[in-house]
Design goal:
single chain, Rossmann fold, five-stranded parallel β-sheet, 6 helices
Length: 146
């Protein structure tokens, strides 16, 4: 596989998690993040921790991916192209067939009102970006042990 080109977003999609073994029987986590570098770090960290991971990078792609993948937990950025993370959290929580998985908001928008809106939308927890990989895994394991 050729290395991803910074001007080719599809190359990033193809490379995400490449070479990182995935636990096919691991708990399912959906990563919703539009920044390719952050998305790659999240996917790699979660796979190395024993999770099965899928990603969506645009708000409008989240529900179709979620309905197919059936995540047991969602990591949600707030600022996305298309539908924002607050609305997506509401939509995920409203989808009975998804089983209302915990949504952990992972965002650089750390003002109190942004955090309050995330919780009101149905988020279980708010984690400020940037965060350490160990902190992220600790929070995910709290809701979804491996």
């Amino acid at each position: 596989m050729r290395p991803p080109s910074s001007d080719d977003p599809q190359a990033w999609s193809a490379a995400e998690g490449a070479g990182i073994p995935e636990n096919d029987n691991g708990p399912r986590v959906l990563v919703v993040e539009d920044d390719p570098a952050i998305r790659e770090v999240l996917i790699t960290t979660l796979r190395l921790s024993g999770y099965k991971v899928r990603a969506a990078c645009e708000g409008d792609a989240v529900l179709p991916v979620a309905l197919e993948f059936r995540p047991q937990l969602v990591l949600m950025d707030l600022m996305l192209p298309g539908t924002d993370g607050w609305e997506l959290t509401r939509r995920i929580k409203a989808q009975e067939e998804l089983g209302r998985p915990p949504v952990i908001v992972l965002s650089a928008r750390v003002r109190e009102d942004d955090q309050a809106r995330a919780i009101e939308a149905g988020a279980s927890e708010f984690v400020a970006k940037p965060c350490r990989a160990g902190t992220l895994v600790e929070v995910v394991k709290k809701y979804l042990p491996v």
